[in-house]
Amino acid sequence: MAKLRTFLAALALSVLASTTLTATASADDAPPRSGWNNWSCRPSAAHPEPVVLVHGLGGNSWDNFLTLAPTLRSAGYCVFSETYGKTVLGGLAGGLAPMADSAAEVGGFVDRVRAATGAAKVDIVGHSEGTTVPAYYMKYLGGAAKVDDFVGFGSNFRGTTLNGLASLAAALKLQGLLTGVGCGACTDYLPGSAFLAKLNDGPVAVPGPTYTSIVTRYDRVVTPYTNGLLTGDGVTNIVLQDKCGLDSAGHLGLAVDPNVAQLVLNRLDPEHSKPFRCRPFTTVGI
Prior knowledge:
The model is unreliable at 1-28 (pLDDT under 50). It is built from 10 helices and 6 strands. It has a single domain, classed as Rossmann fold (3-Layer(aba) Sandwich). Helix 1 packs across helix 5 and helix 3 crosses helix 4 (129-140). 32% of the residues lie in helices and 11% in strands. Strand 3, helix 4 and strand 4 form a beta-alpha-beta unit. It is α/β, with parallel strands linked by helices.
């Protein structure tokens, strides 16, 4: 029972893995804030692709990106986000639906952004599940033709052991319980799931988009953290501590990490990237 309680606690943390202020969220969609989710925004010649932000499991359209979205907007990008994968908790906590369904939903949002802005393609920036779902969209749902650059942080392409606790969940047959409370994505992340098998049938990265994956050695949600690394052409993997040994951010902290923000900006526009400046940064917990 002690292990079961530990598993359930870890699962609760994982459901909040990409959120910073979920408890205060009250809207399904981010209102325009300094130009973010401004549907009259038109991409500039310098940044012709609008940026679509994809939140993590348990996040929503704005809480996951309260730091990064204004940073991107200040750099001159049109920035958009939505709450996808809503189930019993509505817009308070998204990303809970089965991930194949969420991938189709993200694809619909990409088309909406393209239609509103007139852009042929978008860039996608995602955190945690916000990397897994777009990867499926690009590989299986035609997204590769509509995405120019993909940048993920706290990436997860092969699920997570939750330090071994996910295997315990599988042994105890808790998958049905997780689905019953509206978290199909939780079961998709368990080792051996049909979703992960399909995503990893051949390289996750497909021709067309450029892929960047940023991971941290201090991740306690995606375990091992190397499950966020990609293989294939057009792929750049960045272990955060290789760039900045003074950064000990965990999974949650990546969303507000100034070093991650620098890396995202540079990968979206590598021709005009700025010298990377390592800043000491740490977060408590996962």
